[in-house]
Specification:
The structure is a single chain. The protein is α/β, with parallel strands linked by helices. Helix content is about 40%, strand content about 20%. The protein folds into two domains: about 190 residues, D-Maltodextrin-Binding Protein, domain 2, CATH 3.40.190.150; about 120 residues, 3-Layer(aba) Sandwich (D-Maltodextrin-Binding Protein, domain 2), CATH 3.40.190.10. The strands form two sheets. It has a six-stranded mixed sheet with strand order 2-1-3-10-4-11, with helices on both faces. Strands 7-6-8-5-9 form a five-stranded mixed sheet. Strand 6, helix 7 and strand 7 form a beta-alpha-beta unit. Helix 1 runs antiparallel to helix 10, helix 2 packs across helix 10 and helix 7 crosses helix 12. The two termini are about 25 Å apart.
Length: about 325
């Protein structure tokens, strides 16, 4: 999926700073909570903690991260959706919660596009396609050829039905015509074990799994982004491999409860940009492939709606039914 991010750097911070009025001059005057609807230690949690640390330094007030897990991120996000939009409860989530969960769950406790204020995209990182080292392929085209020649035994693992790795695999099948069996597991670690052990041929994951590649346990064959990843510069992109429509970035966003004042959302966006665009934040997050990218509420909201519709088409073509 060719998801084009609007790139805004230091000029964005300066521009928004000049635009801020006195209305939010006293914000914040107490502790701010950032909800992460997933467990500690994952990419979303790491990004939120770097952001919280920088905002606390900038604001001179505590900024705490609260992990509220469950229901694919819906429980924690619903807490934010039902909170007051005064800036003291924020939400950091990956793309899947906003653009996939509405198609994955039969009954959502909230509407991501209606019940949350989209403050800004925070940044993006690449997804990478890995294969088992015993597979006789070195790149994406060779993998597609192998899968086409071995339809009865080709498969791929994922952390579960409806996850980005699963849907990216479905996209690959829909756009190339190959048939590979999806084998869902109960999480990314289990899915990776299956790939390493040879129970799965292919898996799509974040740069965190490059550790296994460097140890010779799996082989990266394609980066699902527009540009090559600096942490694996020899691995070509899907565009270089002849499949530019296969771009699937892992992106993260900052949101808040509904009905937040635009001026307050703008202040938070400006301050978040100054934190994540800093050299310290970039250094702390570079190992997960995170590249800071900020945009406005309107641009972010439209991007969420557009990508949600695109994933909805993938769901329908793949015949994936919502869970109860």
């Amino acid at each position: 999926m060719n998801y084009r991010f609007g790139r805004v750097a230091a000029m964005l911070v300066a521009f928004f700073s000049m635009c801020l009025g006195p209305a939010n001059a006293q914000y914040p005057n107490r502790t701010v909570k950032i909800v992460v609807p997933y467990g500690a230690g994952g990419p979303t949690d790491l990004i939120a903690r770097v952001l919280a640390s920088g905002l606390a330094d900038k604001w001179g007030k505590p900024v705490v991260v609260e992990n509220r897990v469950g229901a694919g991120g819906n429980i924690g996000s619903d807490i934010v959706a039902k909170s007051t939009g005064d800036g003291y409860t924020l939400l950091v989530v990956p793309s899947g919660l906003l653009v996939i969960n509405p198609w994955l769950f039969d009954k959502m406790p909230f509407d991501p596009q209606r019940d949350l204020t989209a403050i800004s995209l925070l940044g993006a990182g690449p997804n990478i396609m890995f294969v088992n080292t015993k597979l006789p392929v070195q790149n994406l085209e060779e993998y597609i050829r192998y899968a086409r020649e071995n339809p009865s035994r080709s498969n791929f693992s994922s952390p579960g039905i409806g996850t980005i790795p699963h849907l990216a695999g479905e996209m690959l099948m829909q756009q190339t015509g190959i048939k590979i069996t999806h084998v869902p597991y109960s999480g990314a670690p289990q899915s990776m074990v299956a790939l390493i052990n040879g129970d799965a041929d292919m898996m799509i994951d974040t740069p965190l799994s490059l550790t296994y590649a460097k140890a010779g346990k799996i082989r990266p064959i394609a980066v699902l982004s527009k540009n090559r990843f600096s942490g694996a510069p020899s691995v070509p992109t899907v565009s270089e491999s002849g499949h530019p429509e296969m771009i699937v970035d892992a992106w993260y966003g900052l949101l808040a409860p509904p009905r937040m004042a635009p001026e307050l959302a703008q202040q938070i966006r400006t301050d978040a940009a100054s934190v994540l665009l800093s050299a310290d934040a970039k250094k702390r997050l570079e190992f997960i492939g995170f590249e800071p990218v900020m945009n406005t509420s309107d641009v972010f909201s439209k991007a969420i709606a557009t990508e949600s519709a695109q994933w909805g088409n993938i769901f329908r073509k793949a015949g994936i039914r919502p869970t109860q």
